[in-house]
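Notes from hallway chat w/ T.B., transcribed later so I don't forget. T.B. wanted the structure written out for a chain they're using in a teaching module, and asked if we could keep both sequence and structure tokens in one place. Agreed to drop them here.
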Amino acid sequence: MSILVTGSVAMDHIMVFEDRFKNHILPDKVHMLNVSFLVPSLERLWGGTGANIAYNLRILGQDPVLLATVGQDFDDYARHLDAQGIRRDWLKVLPDAYTAQAYVTTDLDDNQIWAFHPGAMERAHEARLEDVNEDLKVGIVAANGKRAMQENARGLKQRGIACVVDPGQGLPLFSGDELIELLDGAAVYVVNDYEWAVTLERTGLSEDDVAAKVQAVIVTKGGEGSVVREQGRETEIPAVRAERVVDPTGCGDAYRAGILYALHEGMPLATGARIGSLLGALKIAERGPQSIELEIDEFRQRFEREYGSFV
């Protein structure tokens, strides 16, 4: 049985401005802003929550089913996925749209200006869960088009498939009632600490109220680790110390892969959180969200050095 990954497939364009924005943006002129930044370096990286999670599941020896929409410009990304052994059976190409694109310019003070074009992701509901004719044990609803997230969560629950809900950047799209429907009946609700605070504020529920609606809640805290809460118990999972800190982009997606792996293999969620923490530490040491180059046997050895037995 397979792991279903629903979420965005996107291209990240990283540009570096070799100066400081504050030297070119005048505070008293922001109402008539017209500036241009010369960016000598441009790097295109493969990203998107769905594709990032699938990439990390391949490191763990899994063969995930990636369900998403992409656009007319997908050829290069398709070749990348093929090289990584990530199946494209259930990716729907929309010939009249572009694949989701993120553009970021960073200055010498590490300030960033982002622009995001959702493109095909806005029509992610056109890649339909009901068309997937594979046996699925667990699935994740990660950041995507709003309608797709709602329909995929409903579909997984209706089919009795363990559903991990990870709203991520899509959280602001949902009202309190919509968010309650999204997480109600989920196997796991996983968010970072900021998103957890937003969840409580938007739904008006207490921590105990949310915990009663799902089988488990996982809250990640970056360098401070994560907390797994299930059956009234909380387990603190310390962060793994990274060899170096290069780029945090995609660390959360790497962590989610560990949770999915544990659910698929019948392991405790705390073990999945530890697997995810190690993947996150390996990811942050590399540039780009799909950058870890490791075979499953080597990963097991790293895990055993950190935690002991891989069970």
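Follow-up for T.B.: The first helix runs from residue 49 to 59. Might be a good example for the class.
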